[in-house]
Amino acid sequence: MFYFDALRALAIICVIIIHIYAFTKANVISEYAAIPSIKWLFTQFLGIPFRIGVDLFLMLSGALSLGRVWDIKTFLGKRLPRIVSPFIFWNMVLVSLFFIISYFTSMKIVNSFDIMSILTYFYGAITANALGFRPNWFFWMILGTYLIMPIFNKWLLHSELTEAEYFLFFWLITGIFDYTLFTEFPIKLSYFTSPIGLVVLGYYLRYTERKIFKNKIFVWTLILIPLILSMVISTLLSSPTRMYMFNRYSILMCLEVAGVFLLFRNTDFKINENGVIYKFIFSLAKYSYGIYLLHYPILLILVRLLSPMSQIPLCILLFVLLIPIVLIIMSLLNRVPYVNRVIGAK
Against a cut of 0.90, is the pTM above it? Predict the structure, then answer.
């Protein structure tokens, strides 16, 4: 189904944009005021609507894997190598690249080159604590999600969609209290917390036939109301020392991503399979996991090279340069025998 590829492409674009926001927001944080500057508002816009990238990846995992007949051995035997091998490959390659760049150029990403420093930095990279490798937390989160998915799949195979609604109802409550208001709900709902809720939500929205989810007004309301509220509230809660951002599991983010999923599901895509747009979307979807692992260190290098630029041109240029760079790298490596198995291409 093309809308799955389109959603996966959108998800990786959102991840790239949110990381551009993370790298550049320090340039404009101090420009917050009663009427923030255009550069501040532009940067804040990057950080709010596009925060749904990881949520979309989780929903796609549920939509594509849950509700199907498979056993634990088959599922984990296929899924785990697909995420573990690219994770190890790209961390080894990119850590080596950072040491080479730091040793032979003036761009000092790392400062020590003895064996202990190399091992420490590599350990920091795989645990998402080293400079340039913060997004590696996603690997450990998705690994844990895959480990629990066989249990949820067995339940959903023998359940009606109304039982999934039961689970999602309490999951949304945790989104309101635990991740939006940051206050404890009187009833302990630990078993309903994210990210597994997004996985179940993806499954549910793929298979549900409730008419309201096909209503365009409802779907656009589901997207725009949370988005507008997020923008307004985030701006009000920001200050000259920080740009406020909602948690990705907050109720507003969950409603927005649900609306986006439904919008794509209900859209009749009429795209020429030989056209440039289709090929671009297909490439982003095909290489999305590899791009996720690759793009952040490349972005760090680009930011170091382009940092003197003004904020808005900098963000636009980073995006325009990064997308073709990672696509070209992935496309070239995908042509190399054996290597193409470990780069994160589906």
Answer: yes
